[in-house]
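Hi team,

Filling in the usual template for the complex we talked about on Friday. All components are listed, including any nucleic acid strands or ligand strings, so the model treats them as one assembly.

SUBMITTER: L.P.
PURPOSE: interface mapping
COMPONENTS: two
RESIDUES: 426
SEQUENCES:
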Amino acid sequence: MNAPASSSVVSSAVAEFALRKGDNCLILGHRNSEWCGHAPALEEDIALANTALDLIGQTQLWLGLACEAEGKGRTPDEVAFLRDVSGYRNLLLVEQPNGDFGRTLMRQYLFDAWHLPLLKALMGSADRRIVEIAEKASKEVAYHLERSADLVVRLGDGTAESHARMQAAVDFLWPYTGEMFLADALDEELAAAGLAPEPGSLKAAWQEHVTRTFAEATLKAPEKSFAQKGGRRGVHSEHLGYILAEMQFLQRAYPGANW
Amino acid sequence: MDAATISRPAVAEIWSWLGEIPDPEIPVISLVDLGIIRDVTWADDLLEVTVTPTYSGCPATGVINFEIERSLREHGIEKLVLKRQLSPAWTTAWISAEGRAKLRDYGIAPPVEGTAACAGALRPLEVSCPRCGSLRTERISQFGSTPCKAHFRCTDCLEPFDYFKSI
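RESULT (copied from the run log):
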């Protein structure tokens, strides 16, 4: 393979990778923002909005990289607002409906406990741009994980009602966690090029954190489960379409609208 | 006239102008106190100002860039470009001593080492109340009025206050 072809292959792999990272942040950020003005306590309302803000900021960085690596002149806004469901590359976990506050927190925790080790690993990427985004985002995500883990423990080991709700959240969300650790051809290519860790290599750190937190929270992970998958190749649950309908309405109804 | 020599104020002078621009959310400290201005250099007649974001999604970023541009234009700089630099990532350790004192006077406890986003494990924080100075304070919420702040309460004077989180 000649050098230019090889570098364009790497660029397209980086673009697709950045799209996956950006879409996770965008959809989870949007989900969290749905709580704005509706959370059970003012402090939690603010915390959810701030977490959403961090995630949307990280989205801009990742989608910015996706556009740069893709080299087609698209902007992050176009990528966010003008793709349909099948173009989205996020994990199914992050598009699941908010449910009650417990389910929202559990979804955040299960994601954070994966997100932080992922970003730490990406700080060793062969691509300087990935390293820079990971370095920035990891500082914010450390706070996300501290908060979500703390609340999982407080509510899991709380009242009978809060415990039951947190356990129901675990049971509902668990099948969506396996997808985080599955590798496809792109993941293998990225790992071989030293651009990103093998997804499976993050499992031990995640498992260790979840086991420790659940023990403290008196929650049980299901013994048997299966992994729902498809998000990274654009096969999503019905919920994503509703998110996009709300998120993209303005740009579709009034193309190019600006503040 | 030669455009390259017509008006190239000294870099030190430009730093002093930037030191007069208040942070849009915490107007008692300047952008220089905050430590987000990374570099000021001339490339011929083009002034390059390198800025780093505090938090990825900080809504003040746009306003900060606007204020830098407006201030420098008011000082007669015609050709300038703002560059974003992510790495090394901004850390609260870069907030100047003067900036910390101003934060405290304003009622915001300045950052101390040893929180979630810093290297190492979680350790108990010694955040002193900006009103009465007591170290008997407790955290109410990880997130305060902005992503960069947490919400605390003093158990001596009973006043709530903002704590500028360490990252």
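MY TAKE: The interface with chain A takes residues 53, 55-59, 86-91, 115-117, 122, 140-147, 151, 165, 167 of chain B (CB under 8 Å). Chain B has two domains: 3-84, 97-164.

Thanks, L.
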